[in-house]
Amino acid sequence: MPNPNRRHLQLALTSLAFVGVRARAQTSLERTPPADRQVGIAYSAWHDRLPWAKTWDVPELGPYLSNDGEVIAQHAAWLSDANVDFIYVDWSNNLNTGVPGKPDQPRQRFIESATGTLFDVYARLPRHPKIALMIGFPGEAAGLEDGRLKRKADQVWTEFAANPAYQSLCFHYLGHPLLLVYVGTPSPFGAGPPSWLDPRFTVRFMTGFVSQQPGLLAPGSVSRFGYWSWEDRGAPTVAVYRGQAEAMTIVAAWRGDGRNGIPPQGRRNGQTFIESWSRARRIGPRFALAGTFNEWANPSEEPSAEVSKDLEPSRIFGRKYLDILKTEAAAFKAGIDR
Q1: Which of 78, 162, 248, 337 is most buried by a 10 A CB count?
Q2: How many Å is the Cα radius of gyration of the chain?
Q3: What's phi and psi for 159, nearest 5 deg?
Q4: Do residues 151 and 95 make contact, with C-beta atoms less than 8 angstroms apart?
Q5: 70 vs 183 pLDDT, higher one
Q6: How far apart are CA 42 and CA 55, in angstroms?
Q7: Does the predicted TM-score (pTM) go above 0.85?
Q8: Phi and psi for 41 in degrees, rounded to 5?
Q9: Which domains does the chain have, with CATH numbers?
């Protein structure tokens, strides 16, 4: 899970489709036609021994493991029914798995193994979202130069994007598999992300709370250098590509920021989520990113049911937020302003 309290020094992937965007502010917004709009959702595969007793609630499916095929299949059915086009699986906290001379990373190994199981299960399902991966940098600047970033991208390519068994499951954008890269929060690259070209992928950089990084903001809550936001406080920011609204992240609630005097915003019986979707319909981005489906983060990030953002059916909320997602995603993709 992206940890906004850690400075994930970088990684910098960009693709041929992204060259030239990061060096300038984008303030002109062209709406994406409804027929081209799609909905993605952040998906976590890190539930190996999660202490469910400390999370804000327990899923409807119980305290599951992320490599449980029945759970994966149920998630796929729910998300497909809720008009979700793709999930982006969170690999963002570690690049060192399997790297000679680096300590073993059992949690990351589990995440990557569970992702393989997810692909296997999806390959057998008649209906499911597509899959993208989000890699990240574990706070070691050397990873950009010593090959670890490329090694992780190579792994994604070899195991999934170029694998004949899985190619059709990968989410493609601008002619290539989408690869998200989390740079940390705040972004250590305030003048725009550095370039590490990998033409195999369409790469988008992600940070957290673009809404609170003034150097990354242009007028109108536009993400100045095209950063996608993991989550925002207040009005969701919008990334722009070649003058067209590209991506907005929509959350059910947000935690406060005591250091900067920003109070939390609770779910408000679904109103926070609905209002964010209303802004997305007005702006008309290519991608509405619902975050998150099943992060089930620790109490410092999701301190209560009211100030939590998971959309997976739970014992407290039932399927309320899945139902809202279904309704709002359909209206977004239909271009309905209501």
Answers
A1: 248
A2: 18
A3: -75, -30
A4: yes
A5: 70
A6: 18
A7: yes
A8: -145, 140
A9: 41-334 (3.20.20.80)
